[in-house]
Amino acid sequence: MNTPAEIFARSPKPTLGVEWEVALVDPQTRDLVARGPEVIAAVNTAHPEVHLEKEFLQNTVELVTGICDTVPQAMEELARDLSFVRAAAEERGLRLWASGGHPFSDFRKNPLGDKDSYKEIINRTRYWGQQMLLWGTHVHVGVSHEDKVWPIINALMTTYPHLLAISACSPGWDGLDTGYASNRTMLYQQLPTAGMPYQFGSWAEWQSYMRDQSISGVINHTGSMHFDIRPASKWGTVEVRISDAASNLRELSAIVALTHCLVVHYDRLWEAGEPLPTLQPWHVAENKWRGARYGMDALVITSRETDERWVKDELADLVEELTPLARELGCAAELARILEIIEHGAGYERQRRLFEETRSWNPAVDLACDELAAGHPLV
Known about the structure:
- By secondary structure, the chain is of the alpha+beta class.
- It has one domain (16-374): Creatine Kinase, Chain A, domain 2.
- The protein has helices spanning 36-46, 71-91, 116-130, 146-156, 160-167, 183-188, 203-215, 218-222, 249-271, 281-294, 311-329, 332-344, 347-358, 362-374; strands spanning 16-25, 52-54, 60-64, 95-97, 137-142, 172-173, 176-177, 194-195, 226-227, 229-232, 237-240, 299-301, 308-310.
- Strands 1, 2, 3, 4, 5, 10 and 11 form a 7-stranded antiparallel β-sheet that branches.
- Helix 4 (146-156) packs across helix 9 (249-271).
- The radius of gyration is 20 Å and the shape is globular.
- Belongs to the glutamate--cysteine ligase type 2 family. YbdK subfamily.
């Protein structure tokens, strides 16, 4: 069987694209409402310039930026589009909500989107796939040549818990406090094509892998590989899918800024002939788990010699190290917001605190809705 080679589009500049998944909830019950396609259609009719996508579940609206040069440009576009989606939702008596996972909604009562690929995933994965009440932030950064892609991805995997900790906002599931900062991370890896990417050594090795997946029928069933970080060859980008869906634009901007800076930083190291950092696969897996479990309180493995540091200290050092590059990329203010998350806590901490105070997840759902409307963290 001859499988066509995957052609990487090659981006001449480190451009940026952001996909942000938000959902619709009933303001009385706080449960999810499956009216996403209706809201999308309303916005597209009134504002055809806005790019929205249907998602895995009908309760979800995905906001998608165009090709942006800077984080502020992407955030401005998302803020504009969000205002149109909010207006359409409010006209229907609904609120917009965003987090990595809903704390009590029943997955059995949330209908799928109408894409054939989504239906096929459920046909294959059954119970495990049906649980995907999950929302994420996906950040695309342009890369100029496919030879850089896997060295950059392998280096980014050393910062997995960093990107996860600042975004983690899914502590609740099925009415329970899971004890995790990002329960979404643990649930999503149940899919057979999701989770950590293999540490491919070259583009040719990746092509061989994808050829195998095509021959064996895996890609035909799922449409693509849903790795936590993957090449998006059609766009010439590295797509980073680690982060929970942020509940507000301010924290989202910090997540996107760190992602943008890290990709460009590793790209330039590669161009200069410098070695890019890597960790053993077992260390990467352990760091992913620690980030999901402990969030901002994670002790993470930082070297192949198994040195460890607190992720808050790591994040503070990354902000300092990357600030000159952030100034060049036009996102220094957004990168500095990571320091606010270090000081005041991430989304999962705010949600958990309300649950512990009230023994109900309703205030946590309200909080996420309020933060989405305000554009910044509350409480």
